[in-house]
Specification:
Mean pLDDT: 96
Helix content: 25-40%
Low-confidence stretches: none
Strand content: 15-25%
Strand order of the largest sheet: 1-2-8-3-9-16-10-15
Shape: globular
Radius of gyration: 23 Å
Largest sheet: 8 strands, mixed
Number of helices: 10
Distance between the termini: 35 Å
């Protein structure tokens, strides 16, 4: 089975995670894919294949060298984003893309005028959707690349490597992917998530992240008799939202600039709730942002009465850079592997997070390498077959270089 066939098989499974769920995994349909993956890994001859009760899959490709070699790992998540349907994905291949518009289905066109990233892949074979679902290259492309690399190493015993551990997990898209990851069981000195974007991307800086749940209590009174009595929670929610700087939102920021992002708004006169995510690469600025949100709630209470507004702010993950910098050889190996695979590195900060950020703070240094998906979380998502092949080659080369690390 080649990497394209493997990936297309994966897209047939709906593995969308769910933000408000309290189960692990957050959706039972993720386990159907996990069971399929477990059987596939066993059929490919990997050792120690395990699927635990929370949907985490672990497996080993045993080393083929007698020398002492660090055990390293590769990780991808199998859930897809709640932002767009992952059911009944109809993927197809656009062979030797010519640089023009791609008609996904009637009235739905992926155009380089809107998505200039397409032009970086002229002449390549692109896997696209029919415009009604996401594709799931985030992160099933990463899984396909890891599995294909393990099969390649299995079949090419002339390439020396130590024990390679692989793991696939649920619920990354809702920030829970690393919460139940068993780092001790994984048993690696360091690892890599294959969860980045386009070819060459290498990321070991990410946002510090928090969530903020703002709850506003109102007083509902018949509007005809409301003077001096009604407290309209919906109107106060709008007022709170306007207290946050409008220029510090995702649509107005880039690079290292942080933001406040309103991701949910529900309410009526009696009660309203706003859900935010807070992001910043700089730890001090991150702490300032959290304090500012709490202060806005305090100011609302000073105006409308104590207890009217509550702000529940919770940290989600931190910038992995502080954990990667002391072990920079983990990055040096990737850069050398890319060079030997004729891939131009694109080292950039993640305007988001990966499981690797949380894993780095659990004692497993874990930078993020490109998997090839572009425009993910939506119907215009695509992935280049050639990029997936390059990612697979980089994995193989990292394993080979690690075997020579202590020479």
């Amino acid at each position: 089975m080649n990497i394209t066939e493997r990936f297309l098989n994966y897209t047939k499974f709906d593995t969308q995670s769910a933000e408000e769920s309290e189960t692990v995994p957050s959706t039972p349909k993720q386990l159907l894919f996990a069971e399929y993956l477990k059987k596939e890994l066993e059929a490919e001859g990997l050792s120690n294949v395990e699927l635990d009760d929370k949907g985490y899959i672990y497996a080993t490709l045993p080393g083929n060298t007698k020398q002492a070699v660090p055990t390293i790992g590769f990780i991808s998540h199998y859930d897809t984003s709640p932002d767009c349907s992952g059911a009944d994905i109809k993927a197809r291949i656009v062979s030797q893309y010519d640089g023009g518009d791609i008609v996904l289905s009637e009235g739905i066109v992926s155009s380089p005028k809107k998505f200039p990233e397409l032009l970086q892949h002229v002449g390549e074979d692109l896997i696209v959707t029919d415009g009604h679902t996401l594709l799931g290259a985030d992160d099933k492309a990463g899984i396909a690349e890891i599995v294909q690399a393990m099969v390649w190493l299995r079949d090419h015993k002339d390439i020396k490597h130590g024990d390679i551990r692989i793991a696939f997990n649920p619920d990354e898209e809702i920030g829970m992917g690393a919460h139940h990851f068993d780092v001790e069981k994984f048993g690696c000195e360091w690892a890599y998530t294959m969860d980045g974007g386009d070819v060459g991307e290498l990321e070991f800086e990410n946002f510090n992240a928090a969530s903020a749940k703002i709850t506003i209590k109102g007083v509902s009174v018949h509007p005809g008799y409301a003077k001096g009595k009604m407290v309209n929670a919906d109107r106060l929610a709008v007022e709170f939202a306007q207290m946050l700087p409008g220029e510090e939102t995702p649509e107005e920021t880039e690079g290292y600039q942080g933001f406040y992002h309103l991701v949910g708004l529900q309410g009526n006169v009696e009660q309203a709730r706003l859900s935010y995510i807070i992001r910043d690469h700089d730890r001090e600025k991150f702490e300032d942002r959290k304090r500012f949100v709490r202060r806005c709630a305090e100011q609302m209470n000073e105006k409308y009465g104590e207890g009217t507004v509550t702000a529940e702010v919770k940290d989600q993950y931190y910038n992995m850079k502080e954990k990667i910098d002391p072990q920079i050889h983990v990055i040096d190996l990737v850069l050398k592997a890319m060079q030997e695979c004729s891939v131009a590195p694109k080292v950039k900060p993640i305007r988001g997070g990966t499981d690797g950020a949380q894993l780095s703070f659990k004692g497993l240094p874990c930078p993020n390498i490109f998997a090839g998906g572009v425009n993910f979380h939506g119907p215009y998502e695509f992935v280049s077959v050639q990029t997936m092949e390059k990612a697979m080659q980089v994995i193989v080369k990292i394993c080979e270089l690690t075997a020579a690390y202590n020479d």
